[in-house]
Design a protein that fits this description.
Structural class: mainly alpha
Number of strands: 0
Shape: elongated
Largest sheet: none
Helix content: over 70%
Number of helices: 4
Order of helices and strands: HHHH
Distance between the termini: 74 Å
Length: 119
């Protein structure tokens, strides 16, 4: 079973290489058109950027994606830091303290002592 799948994998790789070689082959270029300017299938008549251009395209898009991720991360952190400031937490604690005093869970002296601790 393992040899059979390995053989199929080799055949698939070989077929891919053969077909891609045929597709990429410059012999398929249509040189008779465009007044013998040799435009063929490739942009700029085979004088395009090639691998150099592809590498820079990958770098360009990677930088765009990294920039967007950094922007979203910065926006999330800046909005969350505003909501978690010390002032809002002390107000929340004061509300809880007032609620506990109103329910009778703590005495007036405890309330005043805790109020000093919060502020």
């Amino acid at each position: 079973m393992k040899k059979k799948t390995l053989k199929k994998g080799y055949m698939l790789v070989l077929a891919t290489l053969v077909l891609s070689n045929i597709y990429i082959s410059p012999a398929l270029a249509d040189t008779g058109r465009y007044g013998n300017w040799n435009m063929g299938r490739w942009m700029m008549g085979g004088w395009g950027m090639g691998w150099f251009g592809m590498i820079f395209m990958i770098i360009f898009w990677a930088l765009i994606i990294v920039g967007l991720v950094a922007l979203v991360k910065w926006l999330v952190q800046s909005t969350s830091s505003k909501s978690h400031s010390g002032l809002s937490e002390s107000l929340k604690a004061m509300d809880i303290l007032k609620e506990r005093y109103a329910k009778g869970e703590i005495t007036h002296d405890e309330f005043e002592s805790m109020k000093k601790d919060i502020s």
